Give the backbone structure.
Amino acid sequence: MHADTRHPAPELAACSGVLTLELNTGPAGSVPPGPVSRASATQIAEGIAADLGRLVPDLARFALVVPGALYDQTELLRPGFPLLAALDDVFRGTLLDGGFVPGLVALGSDDGRAFTLPALNPARQPGAGPLLMLPFSLLGRPGDITELSMQLENSLLQSGGVSVTTRQAVEAAFGLRAVNLSYATVGDLCALLKVQLEHAGFDGLWELLERALFRPQEPADVSLAPGNRFLMSEGTVWTPFWTFDDWAQIGPGQERPADALAAGYVEWVRTQRQYLMALSAWGLPVRMAIGEAFTECAGTTMRDLRAGAALDGDYLVETVLHVDNAGPERRLLVTNQFDDEVGTLAYTVAALDADGCLLALEHHYPLSPRELEAITARLTEPSRDFERIVRHPGGLLIDAAGRCLESAPDPATETAAGTRH
């Protein structure tokens, strides 16, 4: 259990375990239960102590801290293990004279809503999934904890059975019925997560998570088959954002034939969004930079990315054409560049004058799926100065020769409003 050994005080060390609850998938959007009362938390903690005592006969040498709350694995497996560190901090706060006294500390919330220490409050995200976790921390002398960690790592998952008493206490306190309950170490959870992610084709995600959890001082550079790239340095993940035009002309898609550009870019966006959501869920900060900055990035040139290529804000506007000293805009032709599975990839906006001549052409890209609302709100702002026309072609509109996005036809003329070329 070497990866989860922490030092809450100079004379103490700590290691952790988890009681995992496998549940039947509840209704879509269902929210995990909140913290339980101190009395219920004490019953659960006593059950866990008794179960561990059958595996570790000298458990009385250690302090055991148990929160009366359930967490998703993304809350537990975060860089620095802040949830587990918070449990250690709670016990350290009980050492009034600085001396170590083994004992049982059960944490509950009598109002059923929140703990006094905010770091211990579960996120309770809707649709958290079928696996919830109740962590616990064991504290003691460094030498004893080293021995205990090895013992738990070797036997907790295989031999640490959950008693009927503990199961009943957990199910009654949280008001749920578990398909299965079992004990595991943090190392066991990471091994399981690694298998799950690799089986689902997310090997690169595990590489980033594993580095962030256990070797955060080491940089990582992960490149994926669709052309996505993730550089991790000093606790932050950097990734290029490619507009379609740049992706197809100078980026990962530049070698693809014209008839494969749409599918290739959709695959890149799908993968990018999946990784961004997952990295955010596991608490890894992510920054984006314009894709062109990565074309010269053979190594981890983080200083260059920070200096001039970082993207901030909700969305990116790529200006393809702008006519200087033009007349007033009278119509905006907005094209929803859309994929059935991924959703909106971008909005192409063509500004036309009263005669239908093109004054400006832009592509508006959300920097993450949740930020699409910011673009939509901006493009649908009421105006008395121009007419707005929104087209939904049901796919990406591409100028194959130019390898770039194009606008939907102007309904007034049924001709393309314009492209880059």
